[in-house]
Amino acid sequence: NFIQVLIAAVGTAYLNVIAFFIGSSAGADMMIDEITGEHVGFQQVLAFTMIPVIFFGLIVFLLGRGRPGICKVAQWIGVAIAVLSIVLPVLVAGNIAAVITLSAIHLITAAGWFFAVHYGNKALHTK
Predict the structure, then answer these.
(1) For residue 125, how many other CB atoms are within 10 A of its CB?
(2) Which long-range contacts (CB under 8 A, 24 or more apart) does 70-73 make?
(3) 105 pLDDT exceeds 90?
(4) E strand residue ranges, the chain
(5) What are the φ and ψ backbone dihedral angles of 47, each rounded to 5 degrees?
(6) Using an 8 Å Cβ cutoff, are 51 and 10 in contact?
(7) Distance CA 110, CA 56 (A)
(8) For residue 80, is pLDDT > 50?
(9) How much is the pLDDT for 41?
(10) Using only C-alpha atoms, what is the Rg of the chain?
(11) Whole-structure pTM over 0.90, yes or no?
């Protein structure tokens, strides 16, 4: 259900923005490049959450229509990518508050992706 993907993408993006503001108010500098002074802003959090979830969610939706089993595989691949990509903020973040905030954003995205491409089995949900 692609509507499920859209709802999950928007919900995940807004949870990530909340995590961003909580982290920022806790002292996260959100700097990812000390040389250029590049910071992660809430617009980037929104875009880098919604665009991949919607784009790849559409691909999984289209593939899953013919083969529902692909949804289960895509769930775990997406979760693995989101969790493994936590390494990047750990390596480039300016302070520990930014590491924790960016890591939390990655974990929220992993959970959002998992539910975005969940294949709803009607027999499973009727009990």
Answers:
(1) 7
(2) 71/117, 71/118, 71/119, 72/119
(3) yes
(4) 31-33, 38-39
(5) -65, -45
(6) no
(7) 13
(8) yes
(9) 85
(10) 16
(11) no
Token pair of 25 as six digits: 């108010």
If one counts every other C-beta atom within 10 angstroms of the C-beta of residue 109, the result is 28
The C-alpha atoms of residue 15 and residue 65 are separated, in whole angstroms, by 29
- Strand (E) or helix (H) holding 37: none
> What is the rounded CA–CA span in Å between residue 64 and residue 73?
10
Amino acid symbol at 120: G
Q: At what angle do helices 69-84 and 96-116 cross, to 10 degrees?
A: 180
Both tokens of 69, joined, read: 């089993």
Asked if residues 116 and 8 have their Cβ atoms less than 8 Å apart, the reply is yes
- The set of residues, in sequence order, having a beta carbon less than 8 Å from that of 122 and lying 6+ positions away, is none
